[in-house]
Known about the structure:
Blueprint: H1 5-8, H2 17-68, E1 77-81, E2 100-105, E3 124-133, E4 150-157
Amino acid sequence: MKIRPSVLRPSHQGFSLVEVTLALGIAAFGITTVMSLLPHGVSNVRTAGEITAAARISQHILGSLDQSQATATQQSQRYYFNAYAVPVDPAGRRKDDIAFVAEVNVPTTDVLLPGNTGVSDAFLRRVTVKLKQTPAADFNFTEALPASYKLYSYVVARTGK
């Protein structure tokens, strides 16, 4: 049996320059796309953390107002929280403990129900919570621009006697 010389030739192995260039171009495009998404992901995680902390802080404040029946007063109260939205005692705090400052105001009469003629409801109170992520315990909400802090408004029902 006679073997033809074309079969005995070594076949061309490897990729051509054009194939390698195309593969590198596709890989570079994919890596660039993934890297461009990272800043958006980090900002989404930061925003989600701030929203979660604000929800926990508001829940704590509303719970403490409900327990103390403080919804009858109009005085502003200040609350301090750490980075995990855990309350910090203002007397025994250190400078690094505070991450959030909240100021709570409960006006005496401002909730009007439909059908009432200028008479506010005795059992409903509006609670406004001003929240700022700052380590400064003496942050002044009245002098600050409203865009520099978050303002949350709730209507709570006074329970009990």
